[in-house]
Amino acid sequence: MGLPNVSEDLSSEVEVDAFKRIFPLRYFERHLAESIRADGRPLGKARETSIFLGAVAFANGSALVKIGSTVSHYSCVFFVKCRCEFRFLIFLWDGFNDFLIDLCSDYVDCY
Amino acid sequence: MLIFVISAIDFHMPPICSPIVRPGRPAEASPMVSKQLSNTISSSRMTDLKELSLVSGKAAWMAYLDIYCLDADGALFDAALLSAIAALSHLQIPSIAMNDDGKIVLVSDEDGQKRAQEPVNKEKRKLTLRSIPFSLTCILHKNYILADPTAEEESIMETHVTVVLDTSGQLISLYKPGGPVLAYTSAIQDCAALTRQRVKELNNFLDKANSAMEV
């Protein structure tokens, strides 16, 4: 029961990551068309901000400022329905042109 | 004649802050942010430089601002300016006495002997900040304006606009380093409106931080 769902979720996550890496500008524009960012923020909102004074003891004045965080939350809602299949045939170098044709045809089929 | 001393501001990016920064060679963004910070702080006139004067014509304080970027995730100038302002608001100028020889000596409360010296600055005191500048960086992309971009968004979309306003709503600085999207009047006005909201938020944060320190 659990195994097919797990493999399907993993494959869709791999698809989203591949799409983001190969077409980064289009990935962000898909989010912009829905008026959100890749980390889930609205367009005009700044990140979480915190100020901590007195961070360095031997300085007369010091501060630690944190805007945002290193953990990013990506929304995958818009890409689950996309059935791109990136066939990675890197070892068969003679078939590289076929790989490119497959990539373009898959890209056309998705939209 | 008073001595007016302008702060020396350095912005450091150690290699721990980003995979792009290499050890040994300074990062590209570091001198840009340093220069932008110096221009913003000097043109905002948020501190009266006479407060840094000790003895007229002889001695004055010189403030060194060293800002270290620990994690570079976009909008570096905003974080650097906010940390500089927070540090200056937390700054306490130590008490100072002058010797008979004319040398400046730090006054420590423990030592009773040095209290016999004539104190120039009797107490620890804070700088008076008049109008505090805050900044917001936006990305212009086609018809969209994205406030406070991450490093990923900055690397993909190319047009940035940084607007610096102070607490009274006056425009201190506007910085747009090229890019394919033109800066129309409506876009600049929208960026300024977003920055005005951000100035209110950050001013509240700074007041909370200072009141928390006083307790």
UniProtKB/TrEMBL annotation, chain A:
Full protein name: Uncharacterized protein
Listed Gene3D superfamilies: GHMP Kinase, N-terminal domain
InterPro entries: PNPase/RNase_PH_dom_sf (IPR027408), Ribosomal_Su5_D2-typ_SF (IPR020568)
UniProtKB/TrEMBL annotation, chain B:
GO biological process: exonucleolytic trimming to generate mature 3'-end of 5.8S rRNA from tricistronic rRNA transcript (SSU-rRNA, 5.8S rRNA, LSU-rRNA); nuclear mRNA surveillance; nuclear polyadenylation-dependent rRNA catabolic process; rRNA catabolic process; TRAMP-dependent tRNA surveillance pathway; U1 snRNA 3'-end processing; U4 snRNA 3'-end processing; U5 snRNA 3'-end processing
Superkingdom: Eukaryota
InterPro entries per record: ExoRNase_PH_dom1 (IPR001247), ExoRNase_PH_dom2 (IPR015847), ExoRNase_PH_dom2_sf (IPR036345), Exosome_comp_Rrp42_subfam (IPR050590), PNPase/RNase_PH_dom_sf (IPR027408), Ribosomal_Su5_D2-typ_SF (IPR020568)
Gene3D superfamilies in UniProt: GHMP Kinase, N-terminal domain
Protein name, UniProt field: Ribosomal RNA-processing protein 43
GO CC, alphabetical: cytoplasmic exosome (RNase complex); nuclear exosome (RNase complex); nucleolus
All copies of domain Exoribonuclease phosphorolytic, residue ranges: 9-94, 132-180
Family the entry assigns: Belongs to the RNase PH family.
Species annotation: Glycine max
Gene behind this protein: LOC100812139
Record keywords, A-Z: Cytoplasm, Exosome, Nucleus, RNA-binding, rRNA processing
